[in-house]
Amino acid sequence: MGEGRRERGRGAEEVAAAFLARQGFVILDRNHATRRGEVDLVCREGEVLCFVEVRSRASRAFGDPAETVDRRKARRVVSAATDWAMRHGGLDRAIRFDVVAVVAAPGAAPEVALYRGAFDADGGPGFP
After folding, report:
1. What are the distances in angstroms from CA 63 to CA 25, 60, 69?
2. Tens of pLDDT, residues 24-70
3. In order of start, what are the domains of the chain with their CATH numbers?
4. Residue 3: its pLDDT value, please?
């Protein structure tokens, strides 16, 4: 992955974290990685533990960034989320998998959308 892409990804994660904080989420951790996957943001919304995948694009010309989360990617997030929950005592809490889509066109304010329950623990779609 090129450095420009990595930096854009970090920037999108910062935008997503700030957006979620404004929505009342508490950010618990960032970029929890295992050999089998990574979860970008670990948050709490009320009593619900939320594992958030952040996706970004420069435009919607090829669709919404959230559409890039396929079953394989979702399963990798679930794997990392399970590891995080086991290490931090989160297995006894309600858990949700969310996606934050960031469209960050050069020179424009980023557009951010939150998809709560975007996929389930099997990596299948959580919304129609």
Report:
1. 27, 5, 12
2. 999 999 999 999 999 999 999 999 999 999 999 988 888 899 999 99
3. 3-119 (3.40.1350.10)
4. 53
| CA nearest to 119, candidates 64, 62, 69 | 69
Q: For residue 123, which of 99, 93, 94 has the smallest C-alpha distance?
A: 99
Q: Which two tokens stand for residue 67?
A: 């559409």
What are phi and psi for residue 6, nearest 5 degrees? -60, -45
Give the per-residue pLDDT at 127.
Answer: 57
> In which residue are the tokens 């997030």 written?
77
> What 3-state class would DSSP assign to 40?
strand
User: In this predicted structure, what is the pLDDT of residue 57?
Assistant: 92
Residue 98, classified by CB atoms within 10 Å of its CB into exposed (0-12), middle (13-18) or buried (19+), is buried
**Residue (of 41, 11, 47) closest to 114 by Cα position:** 41
Q: Residue 44 corresponds to which tokens in the numbers above?
A: 């709490």
23: phi > 0 → left, psi -120 to 50 → alpha, else beta; which?
A: alpha
**C-alpha 98 chain-centroid distance:** 6
Taking the C-alpha atoms of residue 106 and residue 23, their distance in angstroms, rounded to an integer, is 25
